[in-house]
Amino acid sequence: MLAFAGILFAAVLVFLTGVVANWFPRPAGLTTGMVVGIAAVLIVVSAVVGFVGRTSPGDGPESGAPPSSPRSKPAPQPTTKTPTAQQVQALQPATTFGCDDTDNSAVVAMHPDGFLLACTNASATAVWNVGSGRSPSLAKDLGVGALSATFNASGRQLLTAGDSCWQFFDGRRPWNQTGNECGLEQSAASAVFAPDGKTFATRRWPDGSDVRFWDVASHKLVNTYQAADGRRIMSIAYSPTGRYFATGSADAHPYLWDVSHNGQRRQLADDRDGHTDEVRAVAFSPDGTRLISGGADRTAKIWSVPDGKLLASLNNGHDDSVNAVAFSPDGRTAVTGGADHKVIEWNITTASPIRALEGSGGEITSLSYDRSGKTLAAGCSDGKVVVWSLT
Protein backbone atom coordinates (compact mmCIF):
# COMPACT_ATOMS: atom_id res chain seq x y z
CA MET A 1 0.00 0.00 0.00
CA LEU A 2 2.80 2.40 0.86
CA ALA A 3 4.68 1.52 -2.33
CA PHE A 4 1.64 2.34 -4.48
CA ALA A 5 1.15 5.67 -2.69
CA GLY A 6 4.82 6.55 -3.25
CA ILE A 7 4.65 5.82 -6.97
CA LEU A 8 1.45 7.82 -7.36
CA PHE A 9 3.02 10.75 -5.50
CA ALA A 10 6.10 10.68 -7.76
CA ALA A 11 3.98 10.52 -10.92
CA VAL A 12 2.01 13.59 -9.84
CA LEU A 13 5.32 15.31 -9.09
CA VAL A 14 6.56 14.59 -12.66
CA PHE A 15 3.40 16.02 -14.15
CA LEU A 16 3.58 19.18 -12.06
CA THR A 17 7.29 19.53 -12.85
CA GLY A 18 6.53 19.51 -16.56
CA VAL A 19 3.79 22.08 -16.17
CA VAL A 20 5.89 24.37 -14.03
CA ALA A 21 8.81 24.01 -16.44
CA ASN A 22 6.66 25.40 -19.24
CA TRP A 23 5.29 28.27 -17.12
CA PHE A 24 8.46 29.48 -15.50
CA PRO A 25 11.96 29.95 -16.89
CA ARG A 26 14.47 27.23 -15.98
CA PRO A 27 17.92 27.93 -14.59
CA ALA A 28 20.69 27.91 -17.12
CA GLY A 29 21.86 24.42 -18.07
CA LEU A 30 18.79 22.62 -16.67
CA THR A 31 17.14 20.84 -19.57
CA THR A 32 13.74 19.21 -19.74
CA GLY A 33 15.42 15.79 -19.86
CA MET A 34 17.22 16.47 -16.62
CA VAL A 35 13.91 17.42 -14.95
CA VAL A 36 12.32 14.18 -16.14
CA GLY A 37 15.33 12.19 -14.89
CA ILE A 38 15.09 13.70 -11.44
CA ALA A 39 11.41 12.80 -11.35
CA ALA A 40 12.19 9.20 -12.38
CA VAL A 41 14.68 8.91 -9.52
CA LEU A 42 12.00 10.13 -7.12
CA ILE A 43 9.63 7.43 -8.39
CA VAL A 44 12.19 4.68 -7.73
CA VAL A 45 13.04 6.02 -4.26
CA SER A 46 9.34 6.28 -3.32
CA ALA A 47 8.72 2.69 -4.46
CA VAL A 48 11.65 1.35 -2.38
CA VAL A 49 10.59 3.29 0.70
CA GLY A 50 7.04 2.01 0.34
CA PHE A 51 8.18 -1.63 -0.01
CA VAL A 52 10.44 -1.40 3.04
CA GLY A 53 7.66 0.19 5.07
CA ARG A 54 5.29 -2.60 4.06
CA THR A 55 7.63 -5.33 5.38
CA SER A 56 8.82 -3.44 8.49
CA PRO A 57 8.13 -5.38 11.72
CA GLY A 58 6.82 -2.23 13.34
CA ASP A 59 3.76 -1.95 11.05
CA GLY A 60 2.47 -5.53 10.60
CA PRO A 61 0.12 -7.72 12.62
CA GLU A 62 3.03 -9.61 14.23
CA SER A 63 4.10 -6.43 16.05
CA GLY A 64 0.72 -6.04 17.68
CA ALA A 65 -0.76 -3.54 15.17
CA PRO A 66 -4.17 -4.31 13.60
CA PRO A 67 -4.11 -6.41 10.40
CA SER A 68 -3.68 -4.31 7.20
CA SER A 69 -6.28 -6.27 5.28
CA PRO A 70 -9.86 -7.21 6.18
CA ARG A 71 -9.03 -10.74 5.02
CA SER A 72 -6.37 -11.16 7.68
CA LYS A 73 -7.19 -13.69 10.42
CA PRO A 74 -7.56 -12.28 13.96
CA ALA A 75 -4.82 -13.10 16.41
CA PRO A 76 -5.66 -16.18 18.54
CA GLN A 77 -6.92 -15.41 22.03
CA PRO A 78 -5.03 -16.88 25.01
CA THR A 79 -6.75 -19.86 26.66
CA THR A 80 -7.10 -20.37 30.40
CA LYS A 81 -5.86 -23.76 31.61
CA THR A 82 -6.67 -25.42 34.91
CA PRO A 83 -3.52 -25.27 37.05
CA THR A 84 -1.96 -28.50 38.21
CA ALA A 85 -1.10 -29.31 41.81
CA GLN A 86 2.52 -28.36 41.07
CA GLN A 87 1.49 -24.83 40.05
CA VAL A 88 -0.43 -23.78 43.16
CA GLN A 89 0.80 -22.48 46.49
CA ALA A 90 1.95 -24.90 49.18
CA LEU A 91 0.97 -24.96 52.85
CA GLN A 92 3.42 -26.33 55.40
CA PRO A 93 2.10 -28.39 58.33
CA ALA A 94 1.52 -26.88 61.75
CA THR A 95 2.83 -30.05 63.36
CA THR A 96 3.90 -33.62 62.60
CA PHE A 97 4.22 -36.49 65.06
CA GLY A 98 4.17 -40.28 65.23
CA CYS A 99 0.99 -42.12 66.13
CA ASP A 100 3.19 -44.31 68.37
CA ASP A 101 6.81 -45.44 68.32
CA THR A 102 6.26 -47.78 65.34
CA ASP A 103 6.04 -47.07 61.64
CA ASN A 104 2.70 -48.88 61.22
CA SER A 105 0.25 -47.13 58.93
CA ALA A 106 -1.76 -44.53 60.86
CA VAL A 107 -5.46 -43.67 60.58
CA VAL A 108 -6.78 -40.47 62.16
CA ALA A 109 -10.07 -38.98 63.35
CA MET A 110 -10.29 -35.35 64.45
CA HIS A 111 -12.51 -34.60 67.44
CA PRO A 112 -15.21 -32.07 66.47
CA ASP A 113 -13.78 -29.42 68.78
CA GLY A 114 -10.39 -29.59 67.04
CA PHE A 115 -8.35 -29.92 70.23
CA LEU A 116 -8.11 -33.70 70.27
CA LEU A 117 -7.18 -36.25 67.68
CA ALA A 118 -7.56 -40.02 67.76
CA CYS A 119 -4.88 -42.02 66.00
CA THR A 120 -4.86 -45.76 65.50
CA ASN A 121 -2.74 -48.36 63.78
CA ALA A 122 -2.18 -52.11 63.93
CA SER A 123 -0.47 -51.93 67.31
CA ALA A 124 -1.96 -49.02 69.25
CA THR A 125 -4.74 -46.48 69.59
CA ALA A 126 -4.09 -43.14 71.24
CA VAL A 127 -5.65 -39.73 71.76
CA TRP A 128 -3.49 -36.64 71.34
CA ASN A 129 -3.84 -33.00 72.37
CA VAL A 130 -3.22 -31.04 69.18
CA GLY A 131 -5.13 -27.76 69.40
CA SER A 132 -3.53 -25.96 72.33
CA GLY A 133 -0.96 -24.08 70.25
CA ARG A 134 1.82 -26.10 71.85
CA SER A 135 3.57 -29.26 70.73
CA PRO A 136 1.26 -32.30 70.52
CA SER A 137 1.04 -34.29 73.73
CA LEU A 138 -0.34 -37.73 74.43
CA ALA A 139 -3.65 -37.49 76.25
CA LYS A 140 -4.48 -41.19 76.55
CA ASP A 141 -3.10 -44.49 75.33
CA LEU A 142 -6.16 -46.60 74.62
CA GLY A 143 -4.29 -49.81 74.03
CA VAL A 144 -5.41 -52.26 71.37
CA GLY A 145 -4.65 -51.41 67.75
CA ALA A 146 -7.35 -51.03 65.12
CA LEU A 147 -7.89 -50.36 61.44
CA SER A 148 -10.15 -47.33 61.83
CA ALA A 149 -11.34 -44.73 64.33
CA THR A 150 -14.27 -42.33 64.26
CA PHE A 151 -16.04 -39.90 66.61
CA ASN A 152 -19.79 -39.50 66.68
CA ALA A 153 -21.27 -36.10 65.78
CA SER A 154 -21.17 -34.79 69.35
CA GLY A 155 -17.66 -36.07 69.99
CA ARG A 156 -18.83 -37.95 73.09
CA GLN A 157 -18.05 -41.38 71.71
CA LEU A 158 -15.03 -42.79 69.93
CA LEU A 159 -15.40 -46.03 67.98
CA THR A 160 -12.43 -48.09 66.86
CA ALA A 161 -12.71 -51.17 64.65
CA GLY A 162 -10.41 -53.95 63.56
CA ASP A 163 -8.92 -57.31 64.55
CA SER A 164 -12.37 -58.96 64.63
CA CYS A 165 -13.32 -56.48 67.30
CA TRP A 166 -14.66 -53.00 67.91
CA GLN A 167 -14.45 -50.86 71.00
CA PHE A 168 -16.27 -47.81 72.32
CA PHE A 169 -14.62 -45.12 74.42
CA ASP A 170 -15.92 -42.07 76.21
CA GLY A 171 -15.05 -39.15 73.96
CA ARG A 172 -14.35 -36.99 77.02
CA ARG A 173 -11.68 -37.43 79.67
CA PRO A 174 -10.84 -39.84 81.29
CA TRP A 175 -11.47 -41.90 78.12
CA ASN A 176 -12.98 -44.92 79.81
CA GLN A 177 -13.93 -47.86 77.64
CA THR A 178 -17.71 -48.05 77.49
CA GLY A 179 -18.13 -51.28 75.58
CA ASN A 180 -16.59 -53.73 73.17
CA GLU A 181 -17.54 -56.59 70.91
CA CYS A 182 -14.95 -59.12 69.82
CA GLY A 183 -14.86 -62.51 68.19
CA LEU A 184 -16.39 -61.32 64.92
CA GLU A 185 -15.81 -63.60 61.95
CA GLN A 186 -13.88 -60.89 60.10
CA SER A 187 -12.11 -57.67 60.96
CA ALA A 188 -14.01 -54.43 60.44
CA ALA A 189 -11.85 -52.38 58.10
CA SER A 190 -13.83 -49.22 58.78
CA ALA A 191 -16.79 -48.06 60.81
CA VAL A 192 -18.96 -44.93 60.63
CA PHE A 193 -21.62 -43.57 62.96
CA ALA A 194 -25.11 -42.75 61.77
CA PRO A 195 -25.90 -39.03 62.25
CA ASP A 196 -28.15 -39.74 65.24
CA GLY A 197 -25.43 -41.82 66.91
CA LYS A 198 -27.80 -44.74 67.55
CA THR A 199 -26.34 -47.09 64.95
CA PHE A 200 -23.07 -47.52 63.13
CA ALA A 201 -22.07 -49.24 59.90
CA THR A 202 -19.04 -51.44 59.25
CA ARG A 203 -17.21 -52.66 56.18
CA ARG A 204 -15.47 -56.00 56.48
CA TRP A 205 -11.83 -56.59 55.63
CA PRO A 206 -10.13 -57.74 53.47
CA ASP A 207 -12.74 -58.89 50.98
CA GLY A 208 -16.13 -58.01 52.43
CA SER A 209 -18.97 -57.44 49.99
CA ASP A 210 -21.57 -56.20 52.44
CA VAL A 211 -22.26 -53.34 54.86
CA ARG A 212 -23.51 -54.25 58.32
CA PHE A 213 -25.47 -52.01 60.66
CA TRP A 214 -25.21 -52.37 64.44
CA ASP A 215 -27.09 -50.93 67.38
CA VAL A 216 -24.81 -48.78 69.52
CA ALA A 217 -26.56 -49.56 72.82
CA SER A 218 -26.93 -53.32 72.46
CA HIS A 219 -24.10 -54.01 69.97
CA LYS A 220 -26.55 -56.24 68.07
CA LEU A 221 -26.61 -56.61 64.30
CA VAL A 222 -29.72 -54.87 62.95
CA ASN A 223 -29.31 -55.02 59.17
CA THR A 224 -27.05 -56.17 56.35
CA TYR A 225 -26.86 -54.81 52.80
CA GLN A 226 -25.17 -56.98 50.20
CA ALA A 227 -23.29 -55.61 47.20
CA ALA A 228 -24.35 -56.86 43.79
CA ASP A 229 -22.59 -60.00 42.54
CA GLY A 230 -20.42 -60.11 45.64
CA ARG A 231 -18.36 -57.11 44.53
CA ARG A 232 -15.79 -56.04 47.08
CA ILE A 233 -16.62 -52.86 49.00
CA MET A 234 -13.62 -50.57 49.43
CA SER A 235 -15.09 -47.67 51.45
CA ILE A 236 -18.27 -46.48 53.18
CA ALA A 237 -19.78 -43.15 54.26
CA TYR A 238 -23.01 -42.10 55.98
CA SER A 239 -24.94 -39.05 54.76
CA PRO A 240 -25.59 -36.25 57.29
CA THR A 241 -29.33 -36.63 56.75
CA GLY A 242 -29.22 -40.32 57.69
CA ARG A 243 -31.21 -41.33 54.64
CA TYR A 244 -28.33 -42.57 52.51
CA PHE A 245 -25.04 -44.31 52.83
CA ALA A 246 -22.48 -44.61 50.06
CA THR A 247 -19.95 -47.25 49.14
CA GLY A 248 -16.93 -47.32 46.90
CA SER A 249 -16.51 -50.55 45.01
CA ALA A 250 -13.70 -52.57 43.45
CA ASP A 251 -15.74 -52.55 40.22
CA ALA A 252 -14.82 -48.83 39.73
CA HIS A 253 -18.25 -47.50 40.73
CA PRO A 254 -19.56 -45.55 43.72
CA TYR A 255 -23.00 -46.62 44.91
CA LEU A 256 -25.73 -44.76 46.77
CA TRP A 257 -27.98 -46.77 49.08
CA ASP A 258 -31.37 -45.47 50.27
CA VAL A 259 -31.92 -46.62 53.85
CA SER A 260 -35.52 -45.38 53.81
CA HIS A 261 -36.28 -47.76 50.92
CA ASN A 262 -34.72 -50.91 52.38
CA GLY A 263 -31.28 -50.18 51.00
CA GLN A 264 -32.29 -49.58 47.40
CA ARG A 265 -29.00 -49.28 45.54
CA ARG A 266 -28.07 -46.85 42.77
CA GLN A 267 -24.90 -46.85 40.69
CA LEU A 268 -23.62 -43.29 40.31
CA ALA A 269 -21.36 -43.76 37.32
CA ASP A 270 -21.13 -45.42 33.95
CA ASP A 271 -18.23 -46.10 31.62
CA ARG A 272 -18.45 -42.61 30.11
CA ASP A 273 -18.08 -40.39 33.17
CA GLY A 274 -17.06 -42.70 36.02
CA HIS A 275 -13.83 -43.97 37.46
CA THR A 276 -11.75 -46.46 35.53
CA ASP A 277 -10.38 -48.29 38.57
CA GLU A 278 -11.55 -49.21 42.07
CA VAL A 279 -13.16 -46.50 44.21
CA ARG A 280 -11.11 -46.29 47.41
CA ALA A 281 -12.80 -43.42 49.27
CA VAL A 282 -16.20 -41.73 49.51
CA ALA A 283 -17.52 -38.83 51.60
CA PHE A 284 -20.69 -36.71 51.72
CA SER A 285 -20.86 -32.94 51.78
CA PRO A 286 -22.11 -31.41 55.07
CA ASP A 287 -25.59 -30.79 53.62
CA GLY A 288 -25.77 -34.27 52.09
CA THR A 289 -26.44 -33.03 48.55
CA ARG A 290 -23.09 -34.10 47.09
CA LEU A 291 -20.76 -37.05 47.26
CA ILE A 292 -17.03 -37.09 46.50
CA SER A 293 -15.30 -40.29 45.43
CA GLY A 294 -11.60 -41.02 45.09
CA GLY A 295 -10.24 -43.71 42.83
CA ALA A 296 -7.19 -45.76 41.98
CA ASP A 297 -7.37 -44.02 38.59
CA ARG A 298 -5.75 -40.94 40.24
CA THR A 299 -8.91 -38.82 40.07
CA ALA A 300 -11.68 -37.66 42.38
CA LYS A 301 -15.23 -36.99 41.26
CA ILE A 302 -18.14 -35.06 42.73
CA TRP A 303 -21.69 -36.34 42.30
CA SER A 304 -25.14 -34.94 42.91
CA VAL A 305 -27.27 -36.73 45.51
CA PRO A 306 -29.63 -38.42 44.91
CA ASP A 307 -29.83 -38.16 41.09
CA GLY A 308 -26.24 -39.32 40.59
CA LYS A 309 -25.28 -36.62 38.09
CA LEU A 310 -21.55 -35.97 37.72
CA LEU A 311 -20.87 -32.39 38.82
CA ALA A 312 -17.08 -32.19 38.56
CA SER A 313 -14.01 -34.28 37.93
CA LEU A 314 -10.88 -33.35 39.88
CA ASN A 315 -7.98 -34.20 37.59
CA ASN A 316 -4.34 -33.13 37.20
CA GLY A 317 -3.67 -33.45 40.90
CA HIS A 318 -2.39 -36.88 41.86
CA ASP A 319 0.23 -39.19 40.39
CA ASP A 320 -1.13 -42.27 42.13
CA SER A 321 -4.32 -43.62 43.74
CA VAL A 322 -6.61 -41.26 45.66
CA ASN A 323 -6.99 -43.02 49.01
CA ALA A 324 -8.84 -40.42 51.11
CA VAL A 325 -11.36 -37.64 50.45
CA ALA A 326 -13.26 -35.11 52.57
CA PHE A 327 -15.45 -32.03 52.19
CA SER A 328 -14.69 -28.96 54.26
CA PRO A 329 -17.34 -28.26 56.94
CA ASP A 330 -18.71 -25.32 54.92
CA GLY A 331 -18.95 -27.50 51.79
CA ARG A 332 -17.09 -25.01 49.60
CA THR A 333 -13.89 -26.97 49.16
CA ALA A 334 -12.68 -30.55 49.31
CA VAL A 335 -9.40 -32.30 50.02
CA THR A 336 -7.93 -35.43 48.51
CA GLY A 337 -5.04 -37.56 49.75
CA GLY A 338 -3.11 -40.01 47.64
CA ALA A 339 -0.64 -42.85 47.49
CA ASP A 340 1.71 -40.24 45.98
CA HIS A 341 2.05 -38.67 49.48
CA LYS A 342 0.08 -35.59 48.32
CA VAL A 343 -2.78 -33.77 50.01
CA ILE A 344 -4.55 -31.26 47.74
CA GLU A 345 -7.26 -28.73 48.53
CA TRP A 346 -9.71 -28.14 45.66
CA ASN A 347 -12.13 -25.48 44.50
CA ILE A 348 -15.05 -27.75 43.69
CA THR A 349 -16.84 -25.12 41.59
CA THR A 350 -14.00 -24.70 39.13
CA ALA A 351 -12.55 -28.22 39.68
CA SER A 352 -9.10 -26.69 40.14
CA PRO A 353 -6.54 -27.12 42.94
CA ILE A 354 -6.27 -24.29 45.46
CA ARG A 355 -3.10 -25.38 47.21
CA ALA A 356 -0.98 -28.40 48.04
CA LEU A 357 -0.66 -29.33 51.71
CA GLU A 358 2.90 -30.49 52.22
CA GLY A 359 4.70 -32.40 54.93
CA SER A 360 3.42 -35.96 54.65
CA GLY A 361 6.06 -38.65 54.61
CA GLY A 362 4.06 -41.57 53.28
CA GLU A 363 0.92 -42.59 51.45
CA ILE A 364 -2.16 -40.82 52.76
CA THR A 365 -4.53 -43.22 54.52
CA SER A 366 -7.13 -40.85 56.00
CA LEU A 367 -8.20 -37.20 56.22
CA SER A 368 -10.24 -35.53 58.96
CA TYR A 369 -11.43 -31.94 59.58
CA ASP A 370 -12.50 -30.46 62.87
CA ARG A 371 -15.96 -28.88 63.05
CA SER A 372 -14.71 -25.35 62.30
CA GLY A 373 -12.74 -26.34 59.21
CA LYS A 374 -9.67 -24.57 60.56
CA THR A 375 -7.75 -27.77 61.27
CA LEU A 376 -7.11 -30.73 59.00
CA ALA A 377 -5.28 -33.93 59.94
CA ALA A 378 -3.90 -36.72 57.77
CA GLY A 379 -2.78 -40.22 58.66
CA CYS A 380 0.16 -41.62 56.70
CA SER A 381 1.46 -45.08 55.83
CA ASP A 382 4.77 -44.39 57.59
CA GLY A 383 3.01 -43.99 60.95
CA LYS A 384 3.13 -40.19 60.93
CA VAL A 385 0.25 -37.81 61.63
CA VAL A 386 0.33 -34.42 59.90
CA VAL A 387 -1.82 -31.49 61.09
CA TRP A 388 -2.37 -28.25 59.15
CA SER A 389 -3.87 -24.97 60.35
CA LEU A 390 -6.05 -23.70 57.53
CA THR A 391 -6.75 -19.99 57.06
From TrEMBL:
| Gene3D superfamilies documented for this protein | YVTN repeat-like/Quinoprotein amine dehydrogenase
Concerning Pfam families, the annotation shows:
WD40
Keyword Translocase in annotation: no
Give the record's keywords alphabetically. Membrane, Transmembrane, Transmembrane helix, WD repeat
Regions of biased composition (Pro residues) lie at: 67-77
Keyword Transmembrane attributed: yes
> InterPro entries, alphabetically?
Quinoprotein_ADH-like_sf, WD40/YVTN_repeat-like_dom_sf, WD40_rpt
Which protein are we looking at? WD40 repeat protein
Q: Which organism is it from?
A: Kribbella aluminosa
